[in-house]
Amino acid sequence: MELHILLVFMIVAAVAAVEMKDLISSVIALSAVGLSLSLAFLILKAPNLAVTQLVIEILCMVILVRATIKRDLPLVKDGRWLFNTAGTLLFIAVFLWCAFFALKELPVFGEPSLRVAGVYLAPGARRPGVLNVVTAITLVFRSYDALGEAAILFAAIVGVLVITRKTGKATDEG
Amino acid sequence: MKDNAPGMTLIVKTITRLTVGLIMIYGVYIVAQGETTPGSGFAGGVIIALSFIHVMLAYGKEVAVKKIDVRRGLLLAGSGASAFLTFVALGIFGGARRTGPPLLLAECAIAVMVGAGIFVIFLALVLLVEDVSKRL
């Protein structure tokens, strides 16, 4: 029940974030979406994800406010509204039509098709000294997976630094 | 304190000075208790990076850059990533994971990489925004 309230609130806040004219108000509405997503993780009994989601949301909000506080970018909305509306409605119809067939194939909520989680959570599973199940799964059972995540994150960091540096070294004098 | 000092007002600076240590200690706590309570190296590292961002927003970027600039932050992130790679490589080549180093080391490596990396990303974005708005 609380989950449905949160979901409706998230949808309303997301629509508000898209529709608002003021950029700061839009960022605040977006952070409301993230906060309720964190609460939804708490209700679904995933406190690890809730902590991470909350922290990342704070970081994103700081970056967005810092990036948008000085300028106000007006949205171009005039003209072609018939084409835009028709295209949006057509896309929604196609999406719903595909989702109707795709969602029937999904397993029931709470009964995943993969049976690996049962092995991780079995009472006799070897989790030496690790009480937190999520840490045990990410760092004991799936260390290589965590290594891949770390590699992706490191590649993202290096990519941002390469893109945002001021001038290339070859064109320094130009 | 001078009027034209960079950063925000005196109230913000004082509160930042009082709270930034607590925020950093909380991040270290999240990292250290990742094995028993909710939290992990990723979330703790982001909280540590947020404490540096806090200093940077309140005191201006010069104070924060004096502590960690882009080059040093990238060095920290790279060393954290290398430490985690070593940790996993010990699992591949050193046989069973149960006899390897404790998980806390892996958490700390991830925390150092994530914290330094996210702070460096923030620093690069802020410097880029100021550069672009100066050019406009």
Number of E-state strands of chain B:
0
β-strand amount of chain A: under 5%
Question: What Rg of chain B do the Cα atoms give?
Answer: 18 Å
Give the DSSP E fraction of chain B (strand runs of 2 or more residues).
under 5%
Residues in helices of chain A, as a percent range: over 70%
Oligomer: heterodimer
- Structural domains of chain B: how many: 1
Shape estimate of chain B: flat
Specify the helix fraction band of chain B.
Answer: over 70%
Residue runs with pLDDT of under 50 for 5 or more positions of chain B: none
Description:
- The complex is a heterodimer of chains A (about 170) and B (about 140).
- Helices cover about 70% and strands about 0% of the residues of chain A.
- Chain A has about 170 residues and is mainly α.
- Chain A has a domain at about 1-70.
- In chain A, α1 packs antiparallel against α2, α2 (about 25-45) runs antiparallel to α3 and α6 crosses α7.
- In chain A, about 15% of the residues are buried.
- Chain B is flat and about 55 Å long.
- Chain B has five helices and no strands.
- The interface between A and B is large, with 41 and 48 residues.
A few lines on this structure:
By secondary structure, chain A is an all-alpha fold. Chain A has helices at 2-19, 23-43, 47-68, 81-105, 116-121, 133-141, 143-164. Chain A has a domain at 1-71.
For the structure shown, list the relevant keywords.
heterodimer, A: 174 residues, mainly alpha, 71% helix, B: 136 residues, 5 helices
Provide the fold topology:
The complex is a heterodimer of chains A (174) and B (136).
Chain A lengths: L1 H18 L3 H21 L3 H22 L12 H25 L10 H6 L11 H9 L1 H22 L10
Helix pairs in contact in A: 1-2, 2-3, 6-7
Chain B lengths: L9 H23 L8 H19 L1 H7 L2 H24 L9 H33 L1
Helix pairs in contact in B: 1-2, 2-3, 2-5, 4-5
